[in-house]
Specification:
Shape: elongated
Strand order of the largest sheet: 4-3-2-1-7-6-5
Low-confidence stretches: none
Number of strands: 7
Number of helices: 6
Strand content: 15-25%
Radius of gyration: 23 Å
Mean pLDDT: 84
Structural class: alpha+beta
Distance between the termini: 17 Å
Length: 200
């Protein structure tokens, strides 16, 4: 038996794709608020203020123009997510250097949250797969895939359009398939079940 990789639709990945636009709007809003807070400051740099406004407007245009940016333009999405990380990190460090501990700490936490989001969204550059191997099953998850050895799998229920994996810790993983299974693929799944799970 060869390993078998099945492209699936992962609910968490779909939610993250749908939330990408809102998260860009939130970042753009925070950047705009930060820019507006510097308008009346005596030591405010016009270049710095202009860059903040330009960045906020760019992010707003991107979020409005591309409804499903994370799904439709993943590279552009990741670029702007990276810019947001740098922005929040830079402001956080600047605030900490000025002994503004709460504001600086808040921006650093925002930067870390967007960094985690960047890592998760980077996974969307590739299709999610459920993969059956001789050693176990790889299940897509965020931020990293899970690997179940066969002794931790109770049963597998495969249909032409979906697959359900029941694990021994009472967890169940259900995925819709991107493409219907071919008869040979379904037979190969049954063969894995017969061999490792004594199922069928």
């Amino acid at each position: 038996m060869d390993s078998l990789a099945l492209p699936v639709v992962h609910p968490a990945f779909q939610k993250l794709k749908g939330a990408g636009r809102f998260l860009h709007l939130a970042a753009g809003g925070l950047i705009l608020v930060h820019a507006l807070s510097h308008i009346n400051q005596p030591d405010s740099s016009p270049v710095y203020l202009g860059c903040l406004l330009f960045m906020a407007i760019d992010i707003f245009i991107l979020a409005v123009a591309a409804k499903n940016i994370a799904a439709d333009m993943p590279i552009v999405n990741l670029f702007f997510r990276f810019v947001e990380i740098i922005f929040f990190l830079g402001i956080g460090i600047a605030c900490l250097m000025n002994r503004e501990w709460w504001t600086g700490g808040g921006h650093i936490l925002m930067s870390l949250a967007y960094l985690y989001l960047f890592r998760c969204e980077k996974r969307m550059l590739t299709t999610e797969y459920v993969a059956l191997h001789h050693t176990g099953i790889t299940i897509p998850a965020l931020p990293d895939s899970h690997f179940l050895i066969w002794s931790h799998v109770d049963r597998i229920e495969a249909q032409y359009d979906s697959i359900t994996i029941a694990a021994s810790d009472n967890k169940s993983y259900h995925f819709d398939l991107r493409n219907n299974l071919q008869f040979e693929e379904l037979d190969q799944i049954h063969e894995f079940c017969r061999h490792y799970l004594k199922q069928f």
